[in-house]
Recover the amino acids of this structure.
């Protein structure tokens, strides 16, 4: 089951049928047994044609987020640890990432407020003061206010590797800036809480209509479980509307690669769909 947030409502797709919901987004998704609730109201929803659903998605799709904060987990895959050690070699902080990969406590950090997020088809930004910028494709959890995982989406954690590599204390500047993250295109609500371990994540990057990067992996390669990550996030934080948690990446472009303006990043995850974003810079302020 998938739910899409639109500018004038919510689109639900289930078993090749599309429905329109007139619900408030935050109260709809922030509940236990979300799949059971949604299947229980299907009979009273308006059905629309496949063509109408496609038009709505193409013309009025928004990021699948309301009042939720976005957080992220780091170094949850071996390849992520290796990449962070490589970028931090000159600063002498490489062993930090080795230690956090092996530690009981995961690395969790704040990523974004809703107003800074991009959605499918929208622009993501890279920093002008960073010489090494990359996208990070991540399976992203929607966790309700009680701390229970209810849905999944695709996340793009835009990162400035040169800034983080210079000093680990610069992590907030490397990770938090306008349009430094994207979510979409929908929330995937499975009948079971857990998503299949063989779920594949794929990323491609195109530059001037030419593919310059492609790779894929499986979430099976994650070191930590989703419930473990969610548990740590909710230990001492309350999220009245729920939260989104990016779960880390192991698709890392080579060290000689950096994003350029107008690059197109496409991330696909089995069962969820595709999240496509064009790379840009934050416009200069005009006075």
């Amino acid at each position: 089951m998938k739910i899409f947030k639109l500018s004038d409502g919510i689109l639900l797709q289930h078993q090749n049928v599309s429905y329109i919901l007139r619900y408030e987004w935050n109260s709809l998704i922030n509940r236990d047994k979300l799949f059971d609730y949604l299947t229980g109201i299907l009979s009273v929803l308006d059905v629309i044609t496949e063509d109408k659903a496609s038009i709505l998605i193409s013309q009025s799709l928004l990021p699948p987020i309301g009042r939720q904060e976005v957080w992220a987990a780091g170094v949850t895959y071996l390849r992520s640890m290796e990449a962070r050690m490589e970028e931090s070699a000159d600063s002498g902080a490489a062993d930090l990432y080795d230690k956090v990969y092996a530690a009981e406590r995961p690395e969790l950090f704040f990523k974004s407020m809703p107003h800074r997020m991009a959605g499918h088809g929208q622009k993501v930004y890279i920093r002008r003061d960073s010489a090494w910028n990359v996208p990070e494709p991540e399976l992203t959890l929607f966790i309700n206010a009680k701390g229970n995982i209810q849905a999944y989406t695709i996340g793009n954690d835009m990162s400035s590797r040169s800034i983080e590599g210079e000093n680990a204390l610069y992590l907030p500047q490397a990770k938090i800036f306008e349009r430094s993250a994207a979510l979409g295109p929908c929330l995937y609500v499975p009948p079971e809480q857990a998503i299949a371990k063989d779920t594949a994540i794929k990323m491609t990057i195109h530059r001037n209509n030419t593919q310059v990067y492609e790779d894929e992996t499986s979430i099976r390669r994650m070191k930590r479980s989703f419930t473990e990550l969610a548990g740590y996030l909710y230990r001492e934080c309350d999220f009245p509307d729920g939260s989104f948690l990016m779960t880390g990446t192991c698709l890392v472009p080579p060290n000689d690669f950096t994003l350029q303006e107008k690059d197109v990043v496409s991330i696909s995850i089995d069962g969820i769909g595709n999240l496509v974003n064009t790379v840009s810079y934050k416009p200069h302020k005009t006075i």
Notes: The first strand starts at residue 2 and ends at 6. Residues 201 and 269 are 5 Å apart (CA to CA).
